[in-house]
Amino acid sequence: MNGLIALVGSGEYLPVMEDVDRYLLANLNVKTPRVVCIPAAAGQEGDESVNRWSRMGTEHFQRLGADVQALRITTKASANDAQYESMLENADLIYFSGGNPQYLFETLHGSRAWTAMQKAWSNGAVYAGCSAGAMILSKRIPSFRLAGTLEGFGIVPAKFIIPHFDAIPGIWKPLVYALKGQLKKGERMIGVDENTALVGQLGSEWKVMGKGKVHMFTSKEHLTYENGQSLFLQ
Most CB within 10 Å of its CB: which of 20, 26, 61, 91? Predict the structure, then answer.
């Protein structure tokens, strides 16, 4: 991925994240950015949920002046549908809304859609992922329901990425700190608060944008970063 990556804790397509999305679009230096919204993480939730995310994404980015399409990629079959390849390859920003991260990974992994997206990202397109869309970029995806972890794409240098970090229910907090206990030397876990994003490029500087904080865990320390502060991920 050669363009910006936005790891969003929550708030996709809502006014609270508008400044972040304007920033992503402005960095494309394109008069009318081509945005593609992907509701795949909600694919198991039924048409009502998929349609809601698709509508919200379309309306949100239209207000920001983009040419936007919400693609109905919600199953492995649709992720392998050739009709979507050209739109994905030529996108300037691809946005994944929230839902089930394991289902999102399984739907995209090895698919024609994911291959087409990689072509766009290699050309500098933006990756924006909220909640599940952020989690799939880590090496491992935590499954609180299964009390274990599953494979992720391993694109961002983090073993785990945890969204909604400041709103995690008390019953799950021991599991979060158990994940910290799995970190080996040189590994990290990233927590992103709600209505907050960590935005940057691989091998470069990242900055915190939004109302909350970003939390960086290693086996030995816990650092927090607020809006406007920068950090490096190596």
Answer: 91
CATH (residue range 5-232): 3.40.50.880
Judged against a pLDDT cut of 70, whether residue 169 lies above it is answered with yes
Q: Are 94 and 120 a contacting pair, CB within 8 Å? A: yes
State the residue for tokens 């990556």. Answer: 5
Name 142's Cβ contacts closer than 8 Å, sequence gap at least 6. 135, 149, 160, 162, 175, 176, 179
Q: Residue ranges per domain, the chain? A: 5-232
Q: Check: CB of residue 126 under 8 Å from CB of residue 93.
A: yes
Q: In terms of Cα–Cα distance, which of 14, 15, 13, 23 is closest to 208?
A: 23
- Please give the pLDDT value at position 229: 97
Distance CA 18, CA 211 (A): 12
